[in-house]
């Protein structure tokens, strides 16, 4: 996917994100939940979990562990977002998932390296920081470069 590809006249993919909006908690919006959409997400997650379990039985835990990082509800979420909010919003979410995946890889690498050298709590806290730096930092750097 070309992140510089114009989506509308003069727009790029990251201009469609919600950077200008404040994050809020609105419990009243729970009434707006679409139970069928939650069911689709649950079904995708269940199916992917079953597939990973079968891989584990066939090839062993170490091979199956590689597949556990797969965001089980991402395919369902992107499908629902594309249907309800349009493909442009789904592309933004897919790009965000890429940054999250890179952060997850950084977390795994940091954990692997640090757990043999430090106590578990500090090692995992440092790995969490690595995830945040890579995922959030990468997103902000790319978004800033695209807007420049």
Could you describe the 3D structure shown?
It is a single chain. Helix 4 runs antiparallel to helix 5 (120-147). The mean pLDDT is 79. The chain has helices at residues 35-59, 61-67, 74-85, 87-114, 120-147. It has five helices and no strands. The radius of gyration is 18 Å and the shape is globular. The protein has 148 residues and is mainly alpha-helical. Helices cover 68% and strands 0% of the residues.
For this entry, give a set of tags.
mainly alpha; globular
Helix content: 55-70%
Which residues sit in consecutive blocks of at least 5 with pLDDT less than 50?
A: none
* Spatial separation of the terminal alpha carbons: 20 Å
Q: What string, H for helix and E for strand, traces the elements in order?
A: HHHHH
Taken from the alpha-carbon principal axes, the silhouette is globular
How many beta-strand elements? Answer: 0
Proportion of residues in β-strands:
under 5%
Short note summarizing the structure:
Helices cover 68% and strands 0% of the residues. It has 148 residues and is mainly alpha-helical.
Which SSEs are present, and which pair or pack?
Elements: H1 35-59, H2 61-67, H3 74-85, H4 87-114, H5 120-147
Helix pairs in contact: 1-2, 1-3, 3-4, 4-5
